[in-house]
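step: validate -> pass
step: tokenize input -> pass
step: predict -> running
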Amino acid sequence: MIEYDPCSLQVSDDPWEVLKQLRDEAPIYKHPDYVPFFLSRYADVMKALLDLKSWTVTQGTTPMQNLLHPALPDEEPAPNFYEQMEIELGAVATLDPPVHTRVRKQINAPFKPAAAAELEPFAREIVRGCLAKGRERGGLDGVTELAGKLSVRVALKVLGLPQEDADQYSTWINAMFNRGLGNRELPEGAMEASLALHTDLIQKVMDYRKNNTRIGGLGDVILYSDFEGRPLNDFEASFHFSMVLIGGTETLPKAASAAMWRLWQHPDQRAEVAADLSLVPQAFHEALRYDMPTQMLGRVALREQEFHGQKVAPGECVMFLWPSANRDERQFENAEQFDIHRGFPKILSFGQGAHMCLGAHMARMEGRVLLEELIAAFPEYEIDEGNAQRIRNEMFRGFTNLPLSF
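step: predict -> pass
step: emit ->
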């Protein structure tokens, strides 16, 4: 009997055994307490990702958007977020083609490989500064004092927002996701952080527009370009800012700290990387496969689908279990082994198809730069395993603190 509950401590702490069970015995799974189906095999997830005519993202993709936690019969339905915020045109991740295609094209330039390469010296300077402070103290926290410092500053650079706000934004964004397992509503601290972040961003949008301030980068595109025949209103513009800022800040620290952790756990492979830094991109790619931070995202069916004899009706939701798909033995040989020599197989850590992560090239650059600088400076760094801490919620898995010593 399989019991997969994404809100359980067991799944949060060690999901791998039950995910393998799902792949082998119930590749499409339905828990009686939750609305969506769960897909766990690579081929099934890939098939759904590439089938844009059968699935929509406009009704939500995340567990918090009433996909994982539906309203109970005696509860009032949650108010529509977009209507509350006067948002008619959501961020690109919430749009279906052809609108998605047009909007993504408008905002894509700052995320192309050439743009990531242009920002590499900036990213490297940040990492070196963090490591220099760590050298003086004999160590640092790999999340809060290294990867987190890097990710938010790169996101702000892409948007053209002030670098002096970086630490405050990190504090708010971290608090927004610090809500524990299975909470139907955001705790008070997370709600306050979310409100503070969005209040700050909408005030900036209003001030920039009032004074016709040009901030450069993607920010000017969001503020002053026409989208679908009109400028974004202030709420829509601030929402686009927040999506890029949160996406660019939240995930990279978990991916990078997973790479630090796995290389520390495999000292022979870490020594190989230290001897040949050209292996860093492969090592980071393997860490992304092995420990994908985002545990699930979903789609709602537009027409009837079938997986392994189970029909999914129009209007029903399916959640993609990314970490399971990335460790599917049907796709990856010796999938449960961490192997920096695996090369660059097609993984699902950035999604695939039209909705592939907009910041994938930027994230790869940041992860590579961080590992190159860390391993070159401290090839035998140690981790204080007893004081490492993980986030606990059903959407993310990864470290919130990873103490390194040099």
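step: describe -> The chain has one domain: 50-61+88-297+331-405.
step: cleanup -> pass
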